[in-house]
Write a structure and sequence with these properties.
alpha/beta, 8-stranded mixed β-sheet, 4-stranded parallel β-sheet, 10 helices, 26% helix, 28% strand, FAD/NAD(P)-binding domain-containing protein, flavin adenine dinucleotide binding, FAD/NAD-binding_dom, electron-transferring-flavoprotein dehydrogenase activity
Length: 391
Amino acid sequence: MSRDKTILDLGAGIGAIPVVRQTMVNIVLKDDNFKLVLVAPNTHFHWPISMPRTIVPVQHLEDKTFIPLTPTFSDYPPQKFSFVRGKAVSLDPESNSVTVGLAAGGSLSVPYHTLIIAIGARARARGGMPWKCLSDTLETRERLYHLQDQIAKAKSIVVAGGGLTAVEIAGELGYKYSQHGTKEVILVYNDRLPLAPPATDSVRSQVKLELERLKVKLISDTTVTSHGSHDGTITLQLKNAEGSVESISTEAYLPAFGLIPNTDFMPEHLLDDRKYIKQTTKLQVEGHSNIFVIGDAGSLESSNAIHADKQAVHLIKALPSYFAKCELAEYRADSRPAFGIALGPSRGVGQVGNWRVYSILVWFMKGRYLGTDYSPMLATGKRTSMTIFEK
């Protein structure tokens, strides 16, 4: 492959796909010197926001959570666009090339003129949790179906973690099951309240209240230290803040505590001490003006769909200036908390800055559908969660 004006994009998630689409439309298809190569292991666009509801077996949201990429890519001429199914295994920024481990086996060196890294993050919990895409679409879907089967058969379900994903999962399960007394739903988290600062105590207390209304059993100040299974029963070892240890049994265990950036292929000197890519306010990798990074793998902002959305939109606007060799606009990172948590399809809690967002607004903006009403359009790259493009 020639590197003359080759734009190489790593990733096909919520930040990457809009950048791919708009770069094709605004740059590549308008200039014979450009082509775009997309490298990703997945065959389908994965919409992670809907996963807390998709795992509930009776919701039948799989088709709006996993959306084929092929129809979108068929719009692009093959001489201008290539989709390489695989995963980056090493980056050599001095020679401007990425080595890709191919899904079909073997490897391929892909040279680039400009590199866009949007490879996201994965769930920290061992065993593979489909809150983010796993090694590929097939593994992610198989893990989802396994969890759905566990949940359908379970009398009790334990969710571990106190973050946004864990709380939403507990809320969805509580709405469907525990408020009606059909299954016991337990949330285990390592603090006195769900969530953590910068979420305010008011918001955290409201989350606790909403979960209690759904009859979710809350076990606070406690960590799951180990788990094992035998004959369909999962035994969890719990340790509380005082050091006391106990065991509980369940039929379904859903750990959701934190993310790890997918940066194993990056040279060590380009990563910070948390393994996130060192990212400038122009969304470039430190020391390399022809490498951009957006989304969960970058160091500039916390892992958050809103941040990935904003960074993608900024990069889409910045790339024409970059290729015209003009000064790039600075990206304004926002450290203020901004989130909405759906607690089932009828209630929610949110925060912007230090202000609590009313439940009805969270319901209207997120909780009704968890984005499944527009996820097919997201998969085409014609919009982000917050921005609709003209083309």
